[in-house]
Design goal:
alpha+beta, four-stranded antiparallel beta sheet, 10 strands, 54% helix, 18% strand
Amino acid sequence: MPRRLGRSPRLRVGGLLVLLGPLLLAGCAGDYVARTHGIREAYQAEDYPRALDMLADEGEHGHPNDQLLVLLDRGMVLHAAGRWEESIQVLAQADRLSQELDGISLREEAGALLSNERQRAYRGEDFEKLMISVLQALNYAQLGRDEDALVEIRRVNERLRKMVVEEKKPYEQLAIARYLGGVLYEDQHEWDSAYIDYAQALELEPRLGPLAEPLLRLAKKTGRDDAYEALLQKFPGLPHEPLGREEGQVVVVVEAGLSPEKQSANRPYQPHAAELITIPVYRDRSTTPRAQVSVGEAWQGAVTVTSLGEVAKLHLEDRVGRMLAKQLAGAVVKGGVAAGAGAVTKSEEVAYLTFLLLNLANEPDLRSWLSLPAEFQLARLRLPAGKHLVQVELGGRVTSREVEVRPGRVSLVVMRRYY
């Protein structure tokens, strides 16, 4: 027969559940994704004031563990609204907080072993931390602050170098950062540096198509004869004559689509093992059409330089092994706690109940920076000096932005499009 509990064991069980309660509830309290659904709806409808008001309320009354996400989303909304200076300030706060959270305490890690990753403050995926600097570079470029923009580009490249070389992570440089570096250097007439960054962007994304135009032009200009001949073979017929005295260029950056979303998936602890563990995986929210960019009669199909969907999945997959190890360690800890509860109460039922309750909270952390785009699509046009109206068509919707083209310079235009 099952062992009957006396009054004292029941009291111990009640005390045990009181102690476990905060751990179980903490995993549910920080459901940032569900809580901020309305914010994303307003953001994607371009109702930026409403989205910002709701984010302010979330920052004040939301869960403390989600503060980094509030800052990231607020910085992205301000960026999409063209409030570049404000976006710079908010993303700088997010960057500082992210670095502080990287020094997470051992106590918080131990709590995560007993409940789940949502028990701790959100620290951001590796690629999300890199995206802070990419967006900052675009913010600064829109303000005409090329030097500050280049500082952020160099930060991206250095952070990635450290991840790859020192931390042995299977990442690669971001083509969008390298191409933006080329644009910024070219705008400053630093031809060698511009060529180097464009060439590295091409190495990372060989399908640049018309975006490779400055590579041919600068290879010839800087005397890289062998590279020039190779590029001619790779891009036959691509026009690349020197700019005229009254010509300039426009590079349009289309931040297109919706970034992937984390969902739960089962994965065995080890290959061919029967025991399964629940982990987060990225799933695409939608397909992203190709933007069409036009100025007057001139037009060009935008080229995807970086897919954040692909980058996100690669970075998360790298963490899966560590997640599995942590979950396995968590299972051992939970088993020990359950055995201890059973020993205190002298009840196998209490041990089982304790283990069951602890594992009810064993859910993966599905939080992520969902206001990011799915892709960075770029188009490049050569235009006479003066003011022009740039139009971007994506998913049947046209957005316009005026830009001033200056002789011999490269102007950047940034537009956020959702569908």
